[in-house]
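Title: Comparing notes on inverse folding

I've been comparing how different people in this forum approach sequence design from structure. To keep things fair, I'm posting one structure and asking everyone to reply with a full sequence. Here's the target:
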């Protein structure tokens, strides 16, 4: 079961804060239309299982990681994630190799964990929820992840997405993600980019889906314009009060906006950090 937060308890960065989805009536950017934000994002079913990732163990975790991952997947299913593509991908990727060895024993808890540079690896529920939302009823071919961090979410995406582009602005995390993806032999399936995620990757766009792993006051216009027609973007939005926002491009200059659960992420920043 997910831990519910008490009245005075703040959520950990990159974690889900249970809340009833609602549209709060704030003004929308040009071209946005409000939709029924109480609609639950269900998930499509899987036609084939994700490939199993082979990786070196992190300390002694390799001995128990399969069992712990299966328990994590069962918990995610109980929490409402029903897309078997996402669940199989989460089961295939060894999350413990993406965190410091000292934290490996906590890798399969439903918690965000520090990865250095004041950043976190998001809790498994948030990763699964965001991917399932942009993939509902479809299989994107080209996906952009903004905020690659340690590379975990890109590794999960690569299990059933043909073309994954992941951009990271912090040089140390870019190097960490590259090391982790190499350990899993995923560098040919994930294109990792060191750069400013708020600008997207215009030379590769359009994208069928964009997943943003940091919260800004508003979704950068550059990312909205890099969505393919019918494409979806999911991102946390806000500062002290944040909420997941699902955007679908409905036309040349129109987007539909749906607000989902309350969350807590690290801030979305422009520029690069060496």
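Reply #1:
Here's my take.
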């Amino acid at each position: 079961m997910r831990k519910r937060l008490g009245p005075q308890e703040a959520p950990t960065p990159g974690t889900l804060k249970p809340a009833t989805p609602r549209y709060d009536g704030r003004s929308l950017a040009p071209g946005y239309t409000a939709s029924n934000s109480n609609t639950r994002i269900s998930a499509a079913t899987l036609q084939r299982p994700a490939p199993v990732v082979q990786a070196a163990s992190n300390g002694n975790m390799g001995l128990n990681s399969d069992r712990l991952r299966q328990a994590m997947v069962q918990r995610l299913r109980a929490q409402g994630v029903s897309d078997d593509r996402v669940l199989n991908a989460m089961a295939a990727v060894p999350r413990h190799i993406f965190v410091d060895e000292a934290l490996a024993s906590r890798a399969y808890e439903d918690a965000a964990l520090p990865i250095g540079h004041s950043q976190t690896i998001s809790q498994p529920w948030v990763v699964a929820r965001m991917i399932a939302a942009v993939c509902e009823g479809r299989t994107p071919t080209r996906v952009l992840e903004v905020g690659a961090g340690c590379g975990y979410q890109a590794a999960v995406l690569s299990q059933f997405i043909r073309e994954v582009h992941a951009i990271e602005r912090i040089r140390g995390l870019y190097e960490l993600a590259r090391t982790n993806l190499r350990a899993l032999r995923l560098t040919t399936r994930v294109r990792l980019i060191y750069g400013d995620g708020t600008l997207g990757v215009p030379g590769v766009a359009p994208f069928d889906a964009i997943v943003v792993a940091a919260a800004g006051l508003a979704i950068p216009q550059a990312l909205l314009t890099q969505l393919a027609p019918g494409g979806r973007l999911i991102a946390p939005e806000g500062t002290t009060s944040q909420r997941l926002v699902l955007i679908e491009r409905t036309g040349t200059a129109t987007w539909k906006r749906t607000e989902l659960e309350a969350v807590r992420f690290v801030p979305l920043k422009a520029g690069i950090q060496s």
